[in-house]
Amino acid sequence: MLYQRELDAIDRSAQRLGWRKTTWAIGVLRNALSNEPRPTDSELATLKRSNSELLAIGRNLNQLAHALHRDDRYKDSVTVEKLDALRSHINNHVSHVQALLEAVQNRWEPSPIEDAG
C-alpha cells in the first residue's frame, strides 16, 4: 500500500504528462525493467514530424546531387552559404530532438513528496 502523499505525487506526475495514474505507473515499471521510456502523444507526434523533416531533407539532397551530376548548369546554384544554412537547419533540428529524447529519458525523476508531517 502506498501512503496518500505518495499517491498524490503519482497523481501530480501523471497529470503533468496528461496521463492516467495507471499509464504513468506502467511507464515507470517499463523504464525500470527495460529502460524503455514512453513518450507522450505530443512527444511522439514531434518525433514523427522530425522523421518526416529529415526524410524531406534527405530527398532534397538526393535530388540536388542527381541534378549536379546530370547538368553543369546547376553547379552555380549550390553555394557554401546555402549548404551552411542547410547544415544549421539540420543541427538545430537535431538539438531539438535530442532535448526531447533527454526529457523523455529523464522524466522518471521522482516528483517531490509533500510531507504530511
Task: Describe the protein.
There is one protein chain. The two termini are 19 Å apart. This protein has helices at 4-17, 21-34, 41-70, 80-106. The protein folds into two domains: 1-38; 39-110. Helix 3 (41-70) runs antiparallel to helix 4. The protein has 117 residues and is an all-alpha fold.
How would you summarize the topology of this molecule?
Elements: H1 4-17, H2 21-34, H3 41-70, H4 80-106
Helix pairs in contact: 1-2, 3-4
Number of helical runs? 4
Biggest pleated-sheet summary: none
Q: Round the mean pLDDT to the nearest integer and report it.
A: 81
What structural class results from the helix and strand content? mainly alpha
Task: Summarize the entry for a quick read.
With 117 residues, the protein is mostly helical. The chain is built from four helices and no strands.
Please give a handful of descriptors for the protein shown.
single chain, about 120 residues, mainly alpha, 2 domains, 4 helices, about 0% strand, rod-shaped
